[in-house]
Amino acid sequence: MKRIKNLFGFAAIALAIVVSMAGCKNPIDDNGPTPVTIAALQGVTAPITGAAPVTAITSTKQYTGTVTWSPADNSFKASTVYTATITLKVKGDYTLKGVAANFFTIEGATATNAANSSVITAVFPSTAGTIAEPVKIDIAAISGLTAPVTGVPPVTAIETAQYAGTVTWSPAVSGTFAASTVYTASITLTAKNGFTLTGVTANFFTVAGATAANAANSGVITAVFPATGVTAENIITGGDGGGGGGSGDGGGGKYNTIHLVAERWSDDDGSYEIWNSRNQIKLSDFITIKPEPGDTLVFKISGVSDKELEYIVFLLFQMTGSNWNISDSSTYKVLGQFVFFDLPYPSFNNYIGDITIWDDPDPNAVTYLLLFIYQPIPASIPDGTTMATIRDFSISLVDVVYGYDYSDNELFWEDYWRYYEYESDITIPAQINGKPVTSIREYAFKDCEDLTSVTIPNSVKSIGHAAFFYCTNLTSITIPNSVTYIGSSAFGSCESLISVTIPNSVTYIGRGAFSSCYSLTAINVDADNGAYTAQDGVLYTKDKTTLIKYPAKKTDTSFIIPNSVTYIESDAFSDCTSLTTINVAVGNSAYTAQNGVLYNKNKTTLIAYPAGKTGAFTIPDSVTTIGGEAFHFCTSLTSITIPNSVTRIGDKAFQYCSSLTSVTIGNSVTRIDEKVFYDCNSLTSVTFNGTISESGLYGFDNFRDFGDLRDKYLAGGIGTYVRASGSDTWTKQP
Prior knowledge:
The protein has about 725 residues and is mainly beta.
């Protein structure tokens, strides 16, 4: 039996890990002092008129530093350009030898340093004026104001470091923008203390996507936008087609226009509204060789920008007849799929997703890449209608990883579970049957709850979607310097994982790669990585414009969003139970904070509520959207009041709020997304002040004990619904 188990185990490894002929890259050992890797200097901020200069930076585990200023004023003067000179002193076994020229950064300044040097020079912009002697406004771009989109609420306020402004619309907007309408925005600016509109030239201000005009010395700007859209063309754009083949190089596809079709259907899980491409995109236009089970196709999508998107699904499928029906699985055969979850994203630039083929394709049938876009469809649009243009994006095949042939091995799906389920220490082989192991498959070690450590060879290039998902006892993992791709949810729910280091080879990290890692104290990144960086254990893109993940077990009680950040992943602050306050650096163009809660700049979207905050909370009435996972794992939140301004509650917004007992929902909410109140087991009172359609109650749809609440509300309408603690039955109060 032991021999059989080992044989099955070898088969399981062979099958759970995709292999291909590829070269290996060995890590380089480095002995001696460790070069400094923390690039961002903290504690030195842009000078503020009247404030005293700092004389020391915030100490890190790698260095301390002193600061001198030129000019050397006791307090910062108005309308003055200041230069800070920072001299570092390294700690312990760290060295500045090997530190590159211009390695260090200082928020809000142009920083320079010589290679191997401890001296950094930081030049800041001119300070503001005073109330008596203000300086002229020089920020021309009106940020936060974008072109109207059909069905989306209008922006009514904007703000920068130099001014704030109100926005009115003509024609007046009742709720959301209408289709086929030319809108004009009138922006009225108020200069902040120390700034003035005097001296601003005519037509100085700009608004993205609009023709803007202003008189000299005036803060009143008129911005005329193009008409909102109605019909759809140019939905998917590709290259000239071809490509693929045995080398694994991808082609761009032959699609300059894809007409997405509106379709609605219902099943036991709920009601759906989608756009889909049906049978328009042929896989043969991306790759000439027919893929087989075990092969993985890696697609890249870019350019999507739509705040109403919920998620996108790519399916590889074949029709079993001349026509197919989305609700009738007998009319088609699914070969594999990939889902882009938890939208919206600001854009899909270079977003990579992989589809592993799990079923045998029919060699005589045409294989299609079927695109589903889940998004609300206006009631006036019937099924079968070609939908409106609200996005352009491109899709291309960037790689093919040819897999181990397990199509004749019936032991695969059930036997690798038997083998791995109780193993604690696994070493992945570098080769199988003479072929290098280059990829850890999607779900390869999913739910291996006894796994505590795993050794990955340096032949591996990619770690697939959810490869180690819910390995709850995995405490550490070393990612070799050969890995370039870490899939979405790759280490999700690895509850015992304490720290992780991203090597310099990694160029892509998928959504939620480290979500629900409750013990994670730090994410580190190799200093030579060109795509990502970390500061004090927090993961960012290299340019620090995207904040990806704040470690759940980080013990700090407060955090400041850097000035450079323009996008924050929806799960970035999920599960951070020590965090009670989130603040935003002065000058950040995308975000603001109030009472420690994070919002977008004009406070229309609540982004993140710190999980360590306690008690009840009332959402401000400027908010129209509660972002996905905004209150995720806020275990000390006891009640929430949602104002009448809110129209949508995002995916998983209150998931795992275990102390939440009461919710009041305002009269404008039209959609409650998936898993909004998942595992809110203490919730005993929900008040609805408005009418939500059945399709808008997705967060309650057949979901555990909230299915009864949904049914009672649909029957009873506006009112307060209660249940006894521990009961699944809800009752409307008289």
